[in-house]
DNA sequence: CCTTGACATTGGTGCGGCTATAGGGTCTAC
DNA sequence: GTAGACCCTATAGCCGCACCAATGTCAAGG
């Protein structure tokens, strides 16, 4: 399996895969005679896990650690760590969503002021008024 | 006014302000005898606008442009451009929030599987099951 | 055989918006 | 006189790739 096919299968890009390899996250695959990376099923599986974890938006470093644990057959530990990571992530997500919603409110409010009022002489007060 | 005080007033950092200056976004302020940056009220006001716009999460370049327009007394134009920027931003925000909520759902679902099931042999299917 | 076009390779820089650090100088208070 | 809080410049680092150039390699069609 070549890098392009693999990337497409997993919903990532050749560049990303090479980047993982460069950064030591992924072990270098076999090369075929022409020098192309040739991935076997084990490589692919490992990468699948990594990509899966990244799609959960875990930091690359953590995704790397977990996928390597998993590759070592220590999936029970992965499961535990993953649960804790998920919890943290969800807390973070909740916070982030709240922030974004608050920002949206402020934008809506400011928009309203810009529409109804005359153009403000200054924008100094942006985001300070009326939105605690 | 020295850089530290100004930064604190505006809820930013000295380093960030110096960065704006370095990148040509902010004109360099007067220096006092000891070489410290000395900001007057005009400087401060301009920066206040910039920071305000950044707090609305506009891209720095755009915030810079608008704050400079504003400093030139062309606030009417700012108002128009800002309205359009706000609209765009809100669209983007809505999308982002949806994404984050979807991610949260997937995390919750995966967490459930990790709790109830035995540890999975592989994590291959992460994020692929049951979440269309 | 030759061309065409789609892949691949290495090695590098660029992005945004700062933050952090190193290695100094300067002011104020005790 | 010295401790601590502030300031200066200059540089490196962060994240996770995306993108670029210059070059090599392959399969299919004429």
Secondary structure layout:
The structure is a homodimer of 132-residue chains.
Chain A: H1 3-10, H2 14-22, E1 30-31, E2 37-38, H3 41-55, H4 60-71, H5 75-116
Antiparallel strand pairs in A: 1-2
Helix pairs in contact in A: 3-4, 4-5
Chain B binds a DNA duplex (30 and 30 nucleotides) through α2.
Beta-strand residue percentage of chain A: under 5%
Q: Could you give the distance between the termini of chain A?
A: 56 Å
Helix content of chain A: 55-70%
Oligomeric state of shown chains: homodimer
Q: Quick check: average pLDDT of chain A?
A: 84
Envelope shape of chain A: elongated
Please outline the major beta sheet of chain A.
2 strands, antiparallel
- Strand arrangement, major sheet of chain A: 1-2
Structural class of chain A: mainly alpha
Most extensive interface, residues per chain?
Answer: A-B, 46 and 46 residues
Q: Calculate Rg of chain A over CA atoms.
A: 23 Å
Q: Count of helices of chain A?
A: 5
N-to-C SSE string of chain A, H for helix and E for strand:
HHEEHHH
Overall number of strands of chain A: 2
pLDDT < 50 stretches of chain A: 127-132
